[in-house]
Design goal:
heterodimer, A: Rossmann fold, 8 helices, B: 401 residues, 2 domains, two-stranded antiparallel ribbon
Amino acid sequence: MNALHQTKNPPLIALQGMTKVYGAGQAAMHALRGIDLRINEGEFLAVMGPSGSGKSTCMNILGCLDTPTAGTYKFKGIEVGKLTRNQRTRLRRFYLGFVFQGYNLLSRTSALENVELPLIYRGVSARLRRARALEALERVGLKEWKSHTPSELSGGQQQRVAIARSIVTDPAVLFADEPTGNLDTARSHEIMDLLTGLNRDQRITIVMVTHEPDMAAYAKRTVRFLDGLVESDEQNGRPR
Amino acid sequence: MLWNTIMLALREIKRNVMRSVLTMLGIVIGVGAVITMVTIGGGATAQVKEQIASMGSNLLMVTPGKRLGPGQSSDTVLFKTSDGEAIFREVSSIAAVAPVSSKSLQAVFGNQNWSTTVTGSDNQYFRVTNRSIRTGRQFSDSELRAGAAVCIAGETVGKKLFGGQDPLGEKIRLEKLSCQVIGILEAKGQSTMGMDQDDIVVIPLRTFQRRISGNQDVAMFQVSVHQGASTEKAQRDIRLLMRERRHLSPSDDDNFNVMDMKEIATMLTSTTQLLTALLSAVAAVSLLVGGIGIMNIMLVSITERTREIGVRLAIGALEREVLMQFLVEAVVLSSLGGLIGIVLALTASVWLSGILRVPFVFNAGIVVIAFLFSAAVGVLFGYFPALKAARLDPIEALRHE
């Protein structure tokens, strides 16, 4: 069934021979040494691996935040490497959402305005923007905190605002780079429940980088990186 | 979209009040200082020029002795009234000659007394020194001939001695001389050297000679040359005439001096201009310091801003949208700061020119230059770091330390 599904539609994300080299010559550092990876719509994927294994680099390339040295990346069948910088930006604008380890909210800016931000660049009218941002805040359970600035919110709340900001645009894929890295266990599980719910109820594809097995356990599929290569790829605990 | 960007930029400015205010402060101070200094300097120069014009650039002064001022040698031969008459008669380009002898003394009226300068001269004096009589009249010929006890007072003397009272017809005492006030001079204000030109009492020369100095000498002549005639030629003619009258042999030096006011005037003007240039240099430094202030604020916040740019790029802002926002922000801040600076500077200039008693001369050129300079600094340091950040891959901007 799964195999049939894959042949009918192109995968949402397809990486082939993805390589990323930092620096040049003697000092060259190979972060990715040829990654092949396919991700289908609706998946909840955890990317694991030790520090320096290339998992974050890979996710940044998937999120079009970084450019690869070599290899092809197809998003919905479109070759991202052939897109211009502005086209990649539009890809992010309309299809991708991001949650970072350090939240990356705008300081001195209310939760509501932070969540509204992606909609501004989509050209959504002020009224609709506000309504959708409120709705997103409600989904992460922070509607009452809409006028608070990041410095007035706890880490867990800030991360939930960041999640609200990433889902307010109804993205096709949500990239989360160690979303629980700065949070305690209880807060971490709250965030994971939230992400699981988004994946289940709204069919948002989630790619999450983490080094915590507890968190990875929420995902249906776990890909392990080691030294810039895929070490293992398991679906619900079984190798694919 | 542009409207959107402008609103976004305005919101950012409001959000970062402290940073915005500090940035503007640099511009406000820079623009304010330069405009104030140059305006005041320009006012002072204009005042000097105006005074020179009122003094008459066609004025010559004939003084005894080899050079002006103290240290005149003992062989100084003083002038007589006839010397002035001879100059007026013999030198064709001369419009008027006024003999001038002065002495500082107390003028007394009732229980008021005031220390002033008493000048003995004739009606030519008013013509040569560009003065006119506001109320009353000039000396009559018979008063001049007879050395009558009459005087014409300057405005300051009139005010100090008489207060609000009408001085015409009243008698004031100058040492042993009691004289009747027959006229009040039109106010002339301060001279370039800061002297009150209205602190003066004019009496007929003969009266001065008889009742105050006690001799027949004339201290100096003020000579006005016909409009359009060459002052150099008049100077030369007077010199030749005086040498002849004093029977000086070709080997003798002049024992008198003929000075051109134009020379003095040029010197004074260039002094004021030098002062203005100095003030402007100081102001330019403050503009520069203001610029460095702006730069610092912008650079301090660049880490935060680079990350902000990273966030905006990551969530789908185009490079040009981010840049437009920062450009609008920089332009709005700089212009606002510049405008505040201009308003402050003009207010300060009007106020200062009142205190310093110089005319307020609006200099549009410097307003524009100062405004453009600080706007350029603001835009430069607000926009170009943003340009650098917006060209990064979003992840690099996000990782910026």
